[in-house]
Design goal:
single chain, alpha/beta, 16 helices, 13 strands, globular
Length: 362
């Protein structure tokens, strides 16, 4: 019945093609009729092989079947060997690819060099959990349109690879979570001046010496920052307070964040929507300023902080759009939690794990 309806209305099929990225659906459509195959060739833009376990021959057939593809997602596709990946990224399709996801795939720096040579339109490259090295990154200077690079948990990458990233003229997003990065690498990245997203959580060797110059160089543009379990201190926290475009900020485990710093950050970031200060040294005073200055908050993590009922009342008064609030291991009492829930019509998730005071009488 569904196939019959699709035959009667090519627009429905076109819409399906534009929204779906499943290789199995693609090959099914192409097998039905020439008209459908033509629609695939014209409109199919993204293809996601994750969890499909498709054989290598299917991947190699893609350039012929979907000649206008712009995004290829191969996360966790360990069935594709490096020679097959090299053949695919050397095909006639390669110049049109703008988004490539190879996270958790198995390959060497050689494939990275092939991609850099054959994919001039590349804007986003995901290499999470890959065995690339600093030497492999040197070829990225050919990717002049590359805006987003993700290399979380690439354990062979270190400070020596950062000059290659900083040389990318269009770079606006860099994700280096749990990479062996120190202040030397952060200083190399400080030559980037248009970063909008900076994700460095787990880079525990970073301190003010490297973080502050990197943040200061990108204060006007930074919107999303993750410095969880780094060591930002006074100078870095003051640099964050001068980032007016902040939309999300994660300072989980950053023990130097106190009420004064939180107040300064909130005062200059009216568009802040997400804040994670798990385990930081903030209390009711800082959260009161946060709530007053950041009315668009949607998610806030205050777990393990020194807040009490006054913080909850402030959030309830000023942040009606909150959807997710984490108060784990905080000293808050039932009446204040009830008032908060009543004041937040959009609340979808409230986490209260380890709040021993909730067993006490109000």
């Amino acid at each position: 019945e569904e196939l019959g309806q699709m035959r009667e209305n090519a627009d429905v099929l076109r819409l399906l093609i534009e929204r779906e990225s499943d290789p199995a659906l693609l090959f099914t459509i192409c097998a039905v009729c020439r008209q459908w195959k033509a629609l695939v060739e014209t409109h199919w833009r993204n293809l996601d092989f994750q969890d499909t376990y498709a054989p290598e021959g299917v991947l190699l057939a893609v350039p012929r079947i979907v000649p206008n593809l712009s995004g290829i997602y191969l996360s966790d596709c360990l069935q594709f060997t490096e020679p097959t990946l090299i053949q695919f990224f050397s095909s006639s399709l390669a110049p049109k690819l703008s988004v490539i996801d190879l996270s958790s795939c198995s390959f060497s720096d050689q494939l990275l060099r092939v991609i850099a040579e054959h994919c001039p339109s590349l804007t986003s490259l995901d290499l999470k959990f890959c065995d690339i090295t600093n030497d492999g990154l040197q070829c990225l200077n050919q990717c002049t349109q590359l805006r987003k690079v993700t290399m979380d948990k690439c354990f062979a990458v270190s400070d020596d690879g950062m000059p290659a990233l900083s040389a990318l003229p269009a770079l606006t997003c860099v994700s280096l979570r749990d990479v062996h990065l120190s202040n030397r690498g952060a200083l190399a990245l400080a030559s980037c001046t248009r970063l909008e997203q900076l994700f460095l959580s787990g880079c525990q060797r970073l301190t003010d010496e490297g973080l502050a110059p990197l943040l200061q160089a990108n204060q006007a543009s930074l919107a999303d920052i993750d410095l969880a379990y780094c060591s930002p201190e006074g100078e870095s926290l003051r640099a964050l307070a001068a980032c007016p475009a902040l939309r999300s900020l994660c300072l989980r485990g950053c023990f130097d964040l106190d009420d004064a710093h939180l107040t300064a950050i909130a005062s200059n970031a009216p568009g802040l929507e997400v804040l994670d200060c798990y385990g930081c040294g903030v209390s009711d005073e800082g959260v009161a300023h946060l709530a007053l200055n950041c009315p668009h908050l949607k998610r806030v993590v205050l777990a393990g902080t020194m807040i009490g009922d006054a913080a909850l009342d402030a959030l309830g008064r000023h942040c009606a759009g909150l959807e997710d609030v984490d108060l784990s291991v905080c000293t808050v009492f039932p009446a204040a939690v009830t008032r908060l829930c009543t004041a937040l019509p959009s609340l979808k998730r409230l986490t209260l794990e380890g709040c021993e005071s909730l067993g006490a009488e109000d």
